[in-house]
Amino acid sequence: MGENNHLMFCLVYRSIQNPAIGQTEILSLLEQAKKFNRANDITGCLLSYNNEFVQYIEGSKRDIETLFENIKQDWRHSEVDVLISGHINHREFETWTMAYENFKGPNSRLEYLKLLVSSYFENSDAYTYLNPATKKFWVVVKTLLATQAVEKFK
């Protein structure tokens, strides 16, 4: 992506997914996001799990703020909360206009993500070099996965 590193900005948010949307609407949202992101030099990662979205987006501050205003107004999201935002030195998801994963129930991709997230926290060298927003993103993902797993067995 062609952005100057010193102008990079990122934002991590969490929201509740509207229960009325199905897989078709999510795929439509994803295609719309990829087109917008490609046109605006935005990259990121969106995870959906148990009717919650957690998303990390990065690009110019102006473009990220515009995108986030659109997200807050989108009927598919409610209770949209910024978890962290700020300037970054480099992109974490440089080649992904929008990586997406929807985890529904136990499956091999969900288990892989749990393993990946725990390895971030166990490998202190790798964790040390992450920017604060990336750390927050993975902490929220880890907490979401752990909380949902505990609640399933209550």
The N- to C-terminal Cα distance equals: 46 Å
Tell me, what is the CATH class?
Alpha Beta
**Helix- and strand-based class?**
alpha+beta
Provide a count of the helices. 5
Q: What is the helix fraction of residues, given as a range?
A: 40-55%
β-strand percent reads: 25-35%
CATH topology value: Alpha-Beta Plaits
C-alpha-based Rg, rounded: 15 Å
How many structurally independent domains? 1
Tell me, briefly, the overall form. globular
Main pleated-sheet profile:
5 strands, mixed
The number of strands is 5
Which strand order spans the largest sheet, edge to edge or round the barrel? 4-1-3-2-5
Secondary-structure element order, N to C: EHEEHEEHHH
Instruction: Give the mean pLDDT.
Output: 75
Uncertain spans: 1-5, 112-116, 148-154
Oligomer: single chain
Concise summary:
InterPro entries: Acylphosphatase-like_dom_sf, BLUF_domain. It contains five helices and five strands; from the N terminus they run E-H-E-E-H-E-E-H-H-H.
Which helices and strands occur, and which strands form pairs?
Elements: E1 8-17, H1 23-40, E2 43-49, E3 52-60, H2 61-73, E4 77-87, E5 99-103, H3 108-122, H4 124-128, H5 132-152
Parallel strand pairs: 2-5
Antiparallel strand pairs: 1-3, 1-4, 2-3
Domain BLUF: 8-99
Protein name: Sensors of blue-light using FAD
InterPro entries: Acylphosphatase-like_dom_sf, BLUF_domain
